[in-house]
Amino acid sequence: MSVSDTHGSSRRRRRRLLTAGLAVVSSTAAVIALAVVPALAVHDSGAFQLDGNALTSLQSNPPANDDWDRVCHQVSPTDCPGFSNTTGATAVDWVSEPNVNTTIFTGGGSKDPLDINNWAWKNNAGGLPAKDNLLHGFAARYTLPSTGVNSGTCPSGSASTCQLLYFGSDRLDNSGDAQQGFWFFQNKISTVGGSSGTFSGVHKDGDLLVVSDFSVGGTTSTISVFEWNAACTKAGLTVNGFTCADTNLLTLASSNSANCANATTGDKFCGLVNANTITMPWSFTDKSGTPNNQALTGEFYEGGVNLSLIGEADRCFQSVESETRSSTSTSATLKDFILGNFGSCQTTVKTTPTDATGGPVPAGGFSIGTGSVTVADQANVTVSGVASWSGTVQFSLCGPSATDCTSGGTPIGSPVPIDNTTTQPISSPTTTVTSVGTYCWRGDFTPSAASQAAGVAPGTDGSSGECFSVNPVTPSLPTTAGPDVLLGNAVTDTATLSGTSTQPGTPVINGPPGAPAGGTITFTLLKNDCSTLATGTGTNPQIVTVNGNSPPDYGPVSFTPDAVGTYHWKAVYTPAAGDPNNLGSTFNGDCSQASETVHVTSVPSSMTTAQSFIPNDSATVSAPAGGNLTGTVHFQVFENATCTAPAIYSQDLPVSGPSGTTVHTTNTTVSTTAANVSWLVSFDSSNPAQQSISAKCFETTALNIQNDGPVTSP
């Protein structure tokens, strides 16, 4: 057996659930603006026209914004071209059955008091009266404000909104009265099989059945509203103050005068058939072949129920079924049906990452800063199909290498309570992350037990759209070289590291900060071309270990070049392995920083001149009458013009020979810089025939000394 839609592709094209953003809470404001008159009861709520035709009319009585033409257009624009969508319906259904011989009930188990898994159906079953053959089924749901309305649209003290159901069908022929039923199922109900089969899905307590009998041309109008309730084990029992009409069917309300045309203000439910020939907004041909999509009197039926007034406002209905019946009896034989999707009881959770204050995530993401980022999340929860709901949202965070957070993650705080009256968005507790990367939030909505019983489904949002990034920092690394030096001395460099982040902590989410930034700083001394390593004494490059920001500074490091010239220091910070929070940084990579330039020079020289002289003297001794000379000449030289002691040099030279013999001093070592020099000379004769000469200061020298200087090296 396979699950299939016996109405074929045409039906599938015409079914649609209105889910695009139409939540119970958000749609309320839209409907407030739509109401032309104060919201009263089901037939004059201002939301929908119960006026016996399917076309929206601004002159309808009472006036309202929508009719079935708009429901049809919203579900299948090609079947109802030229119309517009509804103005605020929270769920819609419109199904066409183009083959009049399809989806017919068969078997004795196809009765309303029996659960759906006992029902059976078949195409081309035969024997179906034309008056019981449905061509189209349709339904719509609205949420209206209960505050400020007249005549008590909602019960006193009830929820802030009223829930209204509208439903209808058209049939192949009006030749005879027809009883109709409309089931609203909380579970999803589908047909099983190709051309015959059963149904998937079963009843749930709270399913709603509306049974209508419009006979004698519509003058007799009986409507009964039942609730599926397993506590009804037989007819006549009292359950919750109501009477069981049959097994599993609890009577909520019934009226023999429920014609919308005659309804009074405050009615809980009503229905009516077309009293005259009307033009349908979709393709319609009855058994008699009436042209131009016209439906004869009694071939069109519509009705409505104020769910809030019968205690059914908290129900979410996923499927709707229009059925014809042999009578209004609860055990009547079921004949034709049209099954459609109505609402999904959809829960939508939308989470939005924020900063710690609830503000938006910065463009491009957060910076890891000093090593920790505080983040939060916000969630909007919308629940369609019910007026009142409650539950909790558990926030979770995935990362730091997440692409989404559809499962897993770290729970952040306790579940946050929320219900339909909560001001949204709600915020998560704040949490911290200590590593760069991509993080994604998830919000898991869990309905309360009561809301689950009413059909409210869990919801979650952990898609990639709920992600944010945390980015690394680039530390600052200014360095300062030492002073210029003379060749043979060391040059130095010192680094100041700032703006680092601590390394990731354990755990990364909601854990403590990690260790200070690690890694190394590499100091390199380059020659003036900024590419050649300096040579000399020491290690080049040099590496120092990092432990967080300065102070203290890193260094100084030193190196002794072996040649004069201009040199440049370059420093490179390399983070520790496995540290994503810090990026590497380089200072003076292009050798343009003056603070990192150092000059090595040679020792400067200078020169002054000071002339000096080595004084020498000679003496010629003559004694012509005395024969050959014998004796000694005594020389003394003084650094003044008066032969004043002390003498700077003295020498005794022997004299031997004929008269006129000359002797010379031989000074080679004693020099003087004095401008005045004087000699004291004497002769001691050893020849008795010749006299001695006493010491005489009769030689002086006056010099003009001019010294040049100083002069220096280039």
Commentary on this structure:
With about 725 residues, the protein is mainly beta. It has four domains: about 10-340, no CATH class; about 345-470, Immunoglobulin-like, CATH 2.60.40.3880; about 480-605, Immunoglobulin-like; about 620-700. The protein contains four helices and 47 strands. The strands form eleven sheets. Strands 11-12-13-10-9-6-18-19 form an eight-stranded antiparallel sheet, with no helix packed on it. Strands 21, 23, 24, 27, 28 and 29 form a six-stranded mixed sheet that branches. Strands 31, 33, 35, 37, 38 and 39 form a six-stranded mixed sheet that branches. Strand 11 (about 240) and strand 12 form a beta hairpin. The protein is rod-shaped, with a radius of gyration of 57 Å. It starts with 7 loop residues before the first helix and ends with a strand.
Secondary structure elements and pairings:
Blueprint: H1 8-14, H2 24-34, H3 68-75, E1 91-96, E2 104-106, E3 120-122, E4 134-145, E5 161-171, E6 178-185, E7 190-192, E8 196-200, E9 208-215, E10 220-228, E11 238-239, E12 242-246, E13 249-255, E14 269-273, E15 278-279, E16 294-295, E17 300-306, E18 319-325, E19 334-341, E20 347-355, E21 366-367, E22 373-383, E23 390-398, E24 410-419, E25 426-427, E26 431-433, E27 437-447, H4 449-453, E28 459-461, E29 467-471, E30 479-481, E31 485-486, E32 491-495, E33 520-527, E34 536-537, E35 542-545, E36 554-561, E37 565-574, E38 585-587, E39 597-601, E40 606-607, E41 618-621, E42 629-638, E43 649-657, E44 661-664, E45 676-685, E46 693-702, E47 711-712
Parallel strand pairs: 21-29, 31-39
Antiparallel strand pairs: 1-4, 2-3, 3-8, 4-5, 5-17, 6-9, 6-18, 7-8, 9-10, 10-13, 11-12, 12-13, 14-17, 15-16, 18-19, 20-22, 22-25, 22-26, 23-24, 23-27, 27-28, 27-29, 30-32, 32-36, 33-35, 33-37, 34-36, 37-38, 37-39, 40-47, 41-44, 42-43, 42-45, 45-46
